[in-house]
Design goal:
The complex is a heterodimer of chains A (371) and B (169). Chain A has 371 residues and is mainly alpha-helical. Chain A folds into 2 domains: 211 residues, Cytochrome Bc1 Complex, Chain D, domain 2 (Orthogonal Bundle), CATH 1.10.760; 150 residues, Cytochrome c-like domain (Cytochrome Bc1 Complex, Chain D, domain 2, Orthogonal Bundle), CATH 1.10.760. Chain A is 37% helix and 1% strand. Chain A has a two-stranded antiparallel sheet. Helix content of chain B is 23%, strand content 33%. The chains are: A mainly alpha (371), B alpha+beta (169). Chains A and B meet through strand 1 of A and loops of B.
Chain lengths: 371, 169
């Protein structure tokens, strides 16, 4: 969709970005106009942009600066980008992340990828929309630890930001609402659509034998009666985006330390129920699960193959799914696990994690200034 | 002395256990189904509300390949109770209405409103709470949509939490 315009917009954005980086001043022309989203048709158009926050080039420009702005934290050390690093597909490589007060977060930092299609954010899906989500880590005393009002005051005193807010919102007032809206706009542009899997779906990449076999197992449910082996991953991680916005108890614990969605609904059937995350760039986002308990994809596969804990709250998709007749566990062979991991590595999108449009603009600026 | 110690022990035990009991009560909260959207009377139905309405039984095969007898309330009856445009009112622009059914795991399916109206079809779609005379299994219930005669079970959505009527835009 809008491929021609998209290409033009992209070029304009890159050119403008280069101009801004080269001299490091906000007075350089910031690109303005509607932001042209470019993504494959098979991603579908069930996108989520609130009517009161249309995506613009200038809004995304500001949002990117704010996403990497450490002054939004109580001691000017943390930004959104501290726990959402581009090289790790916007996670931080840790089980839990340290806030301004050195207290660890209760859950693992989530990958920020293809959020344009997300409707429920956080591991328990409690935020409906990126705008509502962005407020939480900024204001949380154990994360960035600064009220949005205090952040607005800091930015208002800056030489650069008031002008940018004026360009985006029509006047230079910096408010809580405007800060989160701009960050959400930037986050919507974090689209990953150039993995080997995307290329395979677009018929421009030929998978290896292991990748193909892994893909087959990923998509197939086990039916020992018919002699069909499978891992049934696609039941929850299927489709071109490998994200379906589902919430499941995947049998991690008999007595979970973190009750997940049950804490919100009070329903025992929601115990240990968490968001099924995207598998985009999954090889880059270790450690895994809401508490980062698994360090490697091998450990993850081991869990699904051998160690799913049967409880009342366990999602039905895990009940009686086995490659052995009458079996309780999935029971994949060593070879099959290796093949599935080969497929999971096809979901790594190198262009996404190196795309200059998503990098820290303050870094590029200071680098340019130094050199 | 011993008695006093016992009383003191029990009193302390009571204080320590109180939060545990409170939490246990909180988790005993019952699941409900919210009916909202293009309706005149939004509803939040508990299991007891569903059981008080007229019951219908639908027989269909489950994934195990066997016939099962599901009972519950015809979805149209629930929508009528909420004041959705059914029957003689289901015409003109109201034919562009859909019913979105959501589950606690985030799964969602869509029916056209006309698919649920007995003036359009004899196929029965119910919100079931029983299978073969017993409550639905933990991972399926307490409420599940059962679509009579539909070949794939994909729209027989489990753990239903919300039914929304909307206009296709």
């Amino acid at each position: 969709m809008n491929k021609g315009f998209g290409g033009f917009g992209l070029m304009a954005l890159i050119l403008a970005g280069i101009t801004a980086i080269s001299s490091g001043s906000y007075r350089d022309p910031v690109p303005v106009g509607p932001y042209p989203f470019v993504y494959p048709a098979n991603f579908g158009n069930r996108i989520n942009i609130p009517v009161d926050n249309p995506t613009t080039l200038q809004g995304v420009y500001l949002g990117r600066m704010l996403f990497y702005e450490t002054r939004l934290s109580a001691n000017n050390t943390l930004s959104c980008g501290s726990c959402h690093k581009q090289e790790y597909a916007f996670t931080d490589g840790k089980a839990f992340s340290e806030g301004v007060d050195h207290v660890l977060t209760p859950r693992s930092s989530m990958s920020l990828t293809n959020l344009l299609w997300a409707r429920k954010l956080f591991w328990d899906g409690r935020a409906t929309g990126l705008e509502a989500q962005a407020i939480v880590p900024m204001a949380n005393p154990h994360e960035m630890g600064q009220s949005l009002e205090a952040s607005a005051q800091k930015l208002q005193a800056d030489t650069e930001y008031p002008g940018l807010f004026k360009l985006v919102y029509g006047d230079d007032a910096i408010t809580r609402d405007r800060i989160v809206k701009a960050i959400a706009q930037f986050e919507r542009t974090l689209i990953s659509a150039n993995s080997k899997y995307d290329q395979y779906l677009a018929h421009t990449y030929t998978p290896t034998d292991d990748e193909l076999k892994g893909m087959e197992l990923f998509n197939q449910s086990p039916q020992p009666g018919k002699g069909m082996r499978g891992a049934n991953c696609a039941h929850c991680h299927g489709g071109p985006k490998t994200y379906m916005e589902l919430f499941h108890n995947n049998g991690l614990d008999s007595l979970p330390k973190d009750n997940g969605i049950e804490a919100l609904t009070g329903l025992a059937s929601d115990r240990g129920r968490f968001k099924v995350p995207t598998l985009r760039n999954i090889a880059l986002t270790a450690p895994y699960m809401h508490d980062g308990r698994f360090r490697t994809l091998d450990e993850v596969l081991e869990h699904y193959s051998e160690h799913v804990v049967q409880t009342d709250a366990l999602s039905t998709v895990f009940r009686g799914e086995s490659n052995e007749a009458g079996g309780k566990q999935l029971k994949l062979t060593k070879e099959e696990k290796k093949q599935i991991i080969a497929f999971l590595n096809m979901l790594t999108d190198r262009t996404f994690v190196t795309d200059p449009r998503f990098s820290d603009p303050h870094q590029s600026k200071s680098k340019t200034t130094k050199s | 002395m011993k008695a006093i110690r016992t009383i003191l022990f029990l009193a302390l035990l009571g204080i320590f256990l109180q939060p545990v009991f409170t939490q246990a009560q909180a988790t005993e909260k019952q699941a409900t189904v919210k009916v909202s959207g293009e309706v005149t009377t939004p509803l939040e139905l508990k299991l007891s509300d569903i059981q008080q309405m007229a019951q219908t039984t639908v027989v269909r095969k489950d994934r195990d390949g066997n016939d099962h007898s599901y009972s519950g309330v015809v979805l149209a009856t629930i929508l009528q109770k909420a004041g959705a445009t059914m029957g003689k009112d289901l015409k003109g622009e109201n034919l562009t209405k859909y019913v979105s059914v959501e589950a606690s795991d985030g799964y969602q399916v869509i029916f056209a409103l006309a698919e649920l109206d007995k003036d359009f079809t004899d196929r029965t779609i119910i919100l079931a709470d029983m299978i073969d005379g017993k409550p639905l299994a933990a991972g399926d219930g307490p409420f599940r949509i059962i679509v009579q005669d539909e070949k794939k079970p994909a729209r027989c959505i489990k753990m239903v939490t919300a039914i929304k009527v909307g206009f296709a835009k």
